[in-house]
Amino acid sequence: MSALFRTFLMIGLLRSSPQIIPASQVLLVLTVITHFLIGLMLASLSISISGAAASAFLGTAVMVAFVYLILLMKGQQSRFVQTVTALAGCEALIGLVALPVTYLFHTSGGESGLIAIFSLLIFSWNIMVAAHIFKHAFTLSSQQGVFYAVFYIFTSLIVGSILGVAA
To answer: What distance, in Å, lies between the first and last C-alpha atoms of the chain?
Structure first.
């Protein structure tokens, strides 16, 4: 398990690419479930448990659908398992880092400038990790990877807004 954690950490630190993730259906399911559970914990800090469950489910579903659709459009569906596993695992790791910051943000009423800065750094880190994964998985330049990552994040936010769920 520590080797797997190290693998996600190395991708999260932009030192390895998602290709080092084993193409395992079991690992895919475990990381997607973990992604959902971390999303549930984060969302439950600010909304009801039912709203948090809907938000976490939506966030995970958008992630899976976004990756699938882009890989389908690029004719690279064979990269689906590794890409979603890498993205779900890295976002879960980032979510674990975000948990105490999010907790402090909500208990302080969002009034601490330092907590807001940490929140912005974590959000930026998430975009950079997604960009890194997309660059490799979708065969893109770094700039295109950032574009896809920002598009992915905003797609998630827009879908959540339309459906009335805080994604």
So the answer is: 29
Burial of 114 (0-12, 13-18, 19+ CB in 10 A): exposed
How far is residue 90's CA from residue 130's CA, in Å, rounded to a whole number? 8
pTM of the model: 0.93
What does the pLDDT look like over 43-70, one tens digit per residue? 999 899 999 999 999 999 999 999 999 9
DSSP label at residue 138:
T
